[in-house]
Amino acid sequence: MLTKYYLANNPFKAKACYLASLIGITAIVANTTPAAAVEMIYRNPGNVSKIQGLVLDGINYDVTFKYDSFLNLFGSPNSSDFNRPTFWDNSQIAKKAVDNIASLMNSQQPVPTKVNSYPSALLPYRGVVAPNGTLFLVSKVDSYITRWDNFIGESQDIFTQGNEQANYAIFSVQEPPKTVPESNLWVGAVVTFLLGATFNKYEKGKANQD
Fold this sequence. Notes:
Order of helices and strands: HHEEEHHEEEEEEH
Shape: globular
Strand content: 25-35%
Distance between the termini: 30 Å
């Protein structure tokens, strides 16, 4: 009751408390970031075009699929400007990526039958150069038979020439969300300005009365 009386008879204090509460709300909103969640993006029913927020070893990835040759997408492993696939020379994490994608596909209802309009996708993780210079790739493979399965062990991997076209899974690191969105900074600045202007006006009025 005393607080209500005090605020009712002190307009500036009431405004200050109100604006301060706005600042508090702004601070809460600015520091609230939604938890990352994996999301399937469909080109059309049953046909996945992108996977967003796939977490592997604490890193968030977006996965897209491109139908092209390895050499066009990544270049030659022997070249100085080789654009290394994300899990190149790392069979363990490549297998984990395939396992997670296969599990994710199988969790959908209904289970999608294609990615990027194709029934399989390659995830290259090693290259083998033949004596004649021909490039062969060792890739983890997702293949739709009755469910999405991964083939474990190089004896069950597909070896494909680097200049043959195939559907490749392309991984890119997802940009982390901004801690303080610009819109919230703008709101906070406006509220702070209004609070300062109200205080100055009150102080000037008080000085004139004195």
